[in-house]
Amino acid sequence: MSAVESAGGETADSPPSYLIQSVLMPEAEGYATVDVWLHAGHIAAIAPQVTPGQAAEVIDGRNKLLLPGFVNGHTHSSQVWQRGLIRPLPPELWLAEVFDTAPALGVEELYWAALSTGIETLLSGGTCVVDQVLLKRGQELESVAAIAQAYRELGLRALIAPLIMDEPLAAGLPQGRSRSDATTGDSGAILEWMAAIVEQFHRPATGIQIAVGPTGFHRCSDALLVGCATLSDRYQLCRHTHLLETRAQRQLAYEKYGRSAVAHLADLGFLNHRTSLAHGVWLEEPDLDILAETGATVVHNPVSNLRLGSGIAPILKCLQRGVNVAFGCDGAASNDAQDLLEAIKLGMMLQTVTEPDYQRWITPRRAIAMATLGGAKAVNLAAQTGSLTVGKAADLVLYDLSHPSMLPLTDPIQLLVLGRPMQVVDRVWVQGRQVLAQGQFQTVDRQDLYEQLRDRRLQFNLNPRQTLAQIEPHYRQMLLD
Amino acid sequence: MSAVESAGGETADSPPSYLIQSVLMPEAEGYATVDVWLHAGHIAAIAPQVTPGQAAEVIDGRNKLLLPGFVNGHTHSSQVWQRGLIRPLPPELWLAEVFDTAPALGVEELYWAALSTGIETLLSGGTCVVDQVLLKRGQELESVAAIAQAYRELGLRALIAPLIMDEPLAAGLPQGRSRSDATTGDSGAILEWMAAIVEQFHRPATGIQIAVGPTGFHRCSDALLVGCATLSDRYQLCRHTHLLETRAQRQLAYEKYGRSAVAHLADLGFLNHRTSLAHGVWLEEPDLDILAETGATVVHNPVSNLRLGSGIAPILKCLQRGVNVAFGCDGAASNDAQDLLEAIKLGMMLQTVTEPDYQRWITPRRAIAMATLGGAKAVNLAAQTGSLTVGKAADLVLYDLSHPSMLPLTDPIQLLVLGRPMQVVDRVWVQGRQVLAQGQFQTVDRQDLYEQLRDRRLQFNLNPRQTLAQIEPHYRQMLLD
After folding, report:
1. Hey, how many other C-beta atoms are within 10 angstroms of the C-beta on B463?
2. Over the stretch A435-454, which tens digit does the pLDDT of each residue have?
3. Contacts (Cβ under 8 Å, ≥6 apart) of B274
4. Predicted confidence (pLDDT) per residue in A396-414, tens digit
5. How far is it, in rounded angstroms, from Cα A47 to Cα A400?
């Protein structure tokens, strides 16, 4: 077919056309060498040979692999500033140390952190990120503006889910509620500025969405969770929250609700096909059926789970029960890298610990499907992205198979997933716009970012670790003694 | 002090002197900024300020971290050619697939594979590798010559441990011995060419050692194991073998010996302070005491263990009982990367799965100590290397802390271990010789290697997978049904 003949539907805003020639793409088994034509933001043709139209920039796809972009289903961009800072501690104590050492971040720091997160997402094969991010108090709208600006400049798809909660840290521990005031925030006021953020920044067509992001049942009142669900329905927003990252949270749910957290969230109407749940390490069997029925997604964050000792999420069981699973990096304070390929590798391999039968293990190809189509489902974009399908948006990544870290070239997908690829992302398109070409960002000078990360000296409050000291005795008593 | 005044003991063969100024090094807690003087192959001085002598090349150590080199305690260099090729399978079936798909490697391919392994070791912070390598049958001495040449050219310390065995693959499975001839090799003949290899290539002063490397009790007769121990004593060679990588091996030991593999190896006299044991995933409590008493080392290969579903090695228990632990990558067919920093990261993090009390977790600093001094102990070099100590050999790595993957610069060691550093190895010295400077190898053009890995088309025999088909039903019956 001819690209010129088939052209149409182009608007003034349409990205240029691209024709990627002779590129490797995975088939059900093995690989095919194809031409792929990107036009008007979409995959317009995939065929053994496509005739380039004059309007198309022709790209040599030889020795390259084309895959749909991954979705980073869970991170917290502002933690970039605490990368490498927090000691190995379990989640509840880790969070206390994050609080204790947190530098006072301004809106500018939020911008640079989001830019860093976006760059690392793109450089590791991602085209979309779910950023559950803590906003600067009192400057919530300015914070989202800065974060959205970073992702818009990069050209990355992003779901910005402001972290909200109305219960204090101590309430997140079993028998911890009595130790502090039950609420710390006014859910009504929070939902009010959330609605304002949605009105101002939720622009799905541009690739920037707002999602509701209550931090988790363990620190949210029912009123806040229901309010989030309502807001989400009004604007068709995605919903994103932490769920059962720790054993303590499972225990807390029974204490707080007399039933599992999943059963409670389902009753509140929080779970649906637009809902993604970070972690799910301590899900129980009956929970899985609820998740499958409601269409909610579990986001697997294996690097963070291992670093914090949260346990191994029952991802294989989720898949066996028909629960959608995506991958996430989690924030840089609990995954000091933000590399999707690392998360995918560890995520698939970790399942071998709990499943002796290798015939049930996640294969590298299945891991890629989870990171792409599974990720797209997690953000309710599976109809538009997540696979190499004609008609879908061109959210695509071109990998350089001639890079030393991909040699010798045996099975490209196995090398990509099981190896340790470095700098193999050659080009990235998001909604058909080329945001990275030959390893270079098209719209952003990343040296600016590195200068900021190098030179911006933030004040970390390293001593005393007050919150940690307050919580630790209770934590040890409840969970270790 | 002055470098010139203190100079002495230099010979014609001595490497040049280096003075690394104002470099960060770890102290018991925190970091110190020091000058480090390397002279005559050794660390000659570490002090807040050392006056450079005329003979010393001065190196700016600012924004750099100096650590002892890591030891890659276990790999199989020839597997480089099968990187990315083998599907996710448990060790016994994985090995069958490795056999089935193995290309016919010539001595040249062994050279390039060793060069690749050496380069990846150096680029990920290693200064020494234990290469338990399969030699070309009938060309055993030529094989070792090629492998030794690769490491010598790079300037890497290496222990070359030819893989030897005298029992067939099927004998390595429980109830598998009756299924095949009990022996496939003549231990006497094997030990004869091993002795010739030792005579010709064991040159500890140059950094190249030969070690005895029986593949494991599961495929070796007692005669071969005892012969290895005897040879090792005659030349003071290190001993290296696989041990209890799989549950099947533990079962097999009781079947074969009526007791644990460790008890049997101890009785054979195979375990001593020069012995390192790869994996140890299925060690039992009483085994640990034997290992501690004999001074043997367990080499932890977490990436390979996860990829093959071997289980989680009881590394914390080993450390608690006083057993030395080092890190290894394992071969590229089971760890498709050969990155020591990845192995260290995963190795420390995996222990959180089996130990709920964070106060017992391996910290990044302890992980570094395991990879350096623990690694040095594994190869019986702890008196000479493995720490930043005046008088020890200068086996040192200088890390660039200004690299984007190390930003923002919070805690350098945490960033190095818990992050995903890329291209941060700036300089490496081995025995005081600078083998890598500003990221460039001093004696080898690595583009030559990449061309070979790219263009040397080996014949892989992908179908039928005959050995796998033979073994799989028995495997499933013994271990899964």
Report:
1. 8
2. 999 999 999 999 999 999 99
3. B232, B236, B237, B238, B239, B380
4. 999 999 999 999 999 999 9
5. 21
- Cβ atoms of residues B333 and B85 within 8 Å: yes
Of residues B124, B64, B72, the one with CA closest to residue B299: B72
Separation in Å, CA of A20 to nearest CA in chain B: 22
**Could you tell me how far CA A226 lies from the centroid of its own chain?**
23
What are the b/e assignments for A82-113, b being 16+ CB within 10 Å? bbbbbbbbbbbbbbbbbebbbbebebebbbbb
Query: Which domains, ranges and CATH numbers included, belong to chain A?
Result: 73-378 (3.20.20.140)
Token pair 């950094």 is found at: B207
Residue to substitute from A353, A472, A477, interface B, most B β-carbons within 10 A: A353
Task: Reply yes or no on whether the pLDDT at B179 is more than 50.
Answer: no
Distance in Å, alpha carbon of A101 to nearest chain B alpha carbon: 11
Closest alpha carbon within chain B to A313: B353
Instruction: Say if strands B157-164 and B213-214 run parallel, antiparallel, or are unpaired.
Output: parallel
Inter-chain contact B339–A420, Cβ cutoff 8 Å? Answer: yes
DSSP calls for B196-228: HHHHHH-BGGGTEEE-BEE-BGGG--HHHHHHH
> Which member of B402, B410, B458 has the closest CB to residue A82?
B410
Using alpha carbons, list the distances in angstroms from residue B258 to A197, B165, B308: 70, 21, 27
**Chain B, nearest residue to A355 by Cα:** B309
Q: Is B391 exposed, middle or buried (0-12, 13-18, 19+ CB in 10 A)?
A: exposed
Find chain B residues with C-beta within 8 A of A361's C-beta: 88, 309
User: Coil, helix or strand for B54?
Assistant: coil
Tell me, what's the ipTM?
0.95
Mind telling me how many Å the CA of A140 is from chain B's nearest CA?
Answer: 24
Residue B333 distance to chain A (closest CA, Å): 10
The identity of residue A52, as a single letter, is P
Alpha-carbon distance of A22 to A32, in angstroms, equals: 9
Tokens (6 digits) for A440: 């270079």
Positive or negative torsion for Cα A336, A337, A341, A342 = negative
- B12 min Cα distance to partner chain A (Å): 37
Give strand ranges (E) for A83-202. Answer: 126-133, 157-164
Assess contact for A154 and A115: CB atoms under 8 A. Answer: yes
Strand, coil or helix: B132: strand
Tell me which DSSP letter residue A14 carries.
P
Q: Which among B419, B421, B443, B447 has a CA at the least distance from the CA of B430? A: B443
pLDDT (tens digit per residue) in B107-130: 999 999 999 999 999 999 999 999
Q: Give the separation between CA B313 and CA B321, rounded to whole angstroms.
A: 14
Chain-chain contact of A408 with B83 (C-beta, under 8 angstroms): yes
| Best residue of A87, A329, A358 to probe chain B, by most B CBs closer than 10 Å | A358
User: Which residues on A lie below 8 Å from B313 (Cβ)?
Assistant: none
Q: In chain B, which residues have their Cβ closer than 8 Å to the Cβ of A350? A: 306
In eight-state DSSP terms, residue B404 is G
- Dist. CA B179–CA B189, nearest whole Å: 24
Mutate to test the interface with B, among A308, A344, A350, A352 (most CBs of B within 10 A): A352
